[in-house]
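Hey, can you fold this one?
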Amino acid sequence: MSGHSNLDHALDAWANSHSPVAVAVCDPSGAVLGCNPAFVSIGAHDNNDIVGRPIDEVLMQPPKSHLNLALRQVIAEGNARAVISVPSAEGPTPQQWELLLEYDAEKDLLFLMGTDLSREAQLTAELQTRTTRDRLTGLENRDALRDELSMAMSSGQPVALFLVDIDGFTRINDTFGHEFGDAVLLVITQRLRRFAGARSFSARVGGDQFALMIRRMADPATIQATAHSLHELLCGEMVINQSKVHLRISVGHAGAPAGATTSAGDLLREADTALSRAGAEGGNRVIEFQPRFHEELRRRTRTEADLRLAVGTCQLDADVQGIFTVGSRTLMGFEALARWRHPERGTVPPNEFIEVADRHGMLDDVLRAVLERSLGSLQEWLVTDPSKYLSFNVAPSQLANRHAVEIVSHALTMSGVDPSQLVVEVTERELVADPVALEALDDLSATGVQIAIDDFGAGASSLGYLWTLPVSVLKLDRRLINSIAHDASARRIVTAMVQMALDIGLRVVAEGVEEDVELEILRDIGCPTVQGFLLHRPCNLDQTDELIGAPKTSLAVPTRHR
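Sure. Predicted structure:
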């Protein structure tokens, strides 16, 4: 009875019945006295078939096995270790077990603990797979891509790397739901796998970003052609559950020749820089990395840092350019133009900082500054003469997030200017591409401000849809206007645009007028108002007093402000 009590106590102390560790208690000769379920499962034995039998026989070990050597060692030294192979009941591949043996001389019992090394290896492989593989798509992740790049480049192979981004993917999720967005990612994955060959390695490196690495591809022309083929395969219309979405895809790519000294991280940064450049240029395009991109990126990074400082130190400002009637050259209004008065770089034009402000969420600060400065300076002039107006540009991102509506409404409240004296300029292509922007235009129009289509005539323009929009002003693109003096086709196009716009009740402004002959042609075809260097160059707000106060006749020979 005492022996059984000692055995029960030993089993309770050494093992839990649910433990994954195999535990057995033997007498000094190696006969099994008891065990837990994990030990029974080795070789699929029955518990009654184990007790009383020699442990080497239970574990199907030959007489001169490592286990028998360990049994002799443990009695002499108190502990031992053995690694054995045990036939598996689940298949032809044997299991590898590590056995730790300990002899308790006081109790005269031998304790054995076993760990399934095969199972550990399987779990390790599964964990490795989980940490390197994307759960949704099954593709490898960014870490795995970096490792694969490192191995390929360290072997001296030439490598081409392509990074892919789905433009506007957040909008797809917002419009159709995240399940639809996941389905889009899975279709992209299928297309990517279909495109990839034996020398390729594909990965999902971000929420809507994918990568394709191709080994032994060095020829720049081949890399460029491959990038365009990849772009063509991935973009275009996609139908999921009877819902259609038209994908716009950006591709950035870079290559490392055989024996390149660049690292995998360098190549990833180069391809990522090219992808960022594709997005900055409007997306839906293929961009090859160029070394000059690094310097431009550093400059943009510095611009971002300086711009954040500018927001809090009143460096953001506005210039204005006059808008005149064609016949009498009467000043009708101003367009407010964003400017940045940098303490070291001087006046920074918008083409050098607007894109940076947009990408980093500072465009609302720019718009507030433009309206605050221009309305503060021109308020008396606008309130005194309700026929005058101030126009300003709003970016598509501000329409999409509805911030422009709030900013304009607040500016109207603070200035006391009649809403009809503000003209919000938006570019045509954003209106066509974004239904959210159209909704924001309706909200802006509801405040009483006027809406102008800017740069009309640049690219694919259509007068056919204008009557459906809350638009009251059409601004003709400067490139078209600059062509009318020497291109008869351009002149006919402008004539048709002006007449059709006037017929549907729109006001028309011709932008970029720089020559007298252009002004004469616009007068002959009936264009009512113009804007350009011929009549007025952009100037500081404190330089408008003379222009505002000048009699109409003095504007026949306008002063050019530089």
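The domain at 2-121 is CATH 3.30.450.20 (Beta-Lactamase). Let me know if you want another pass with a different chain boundary.
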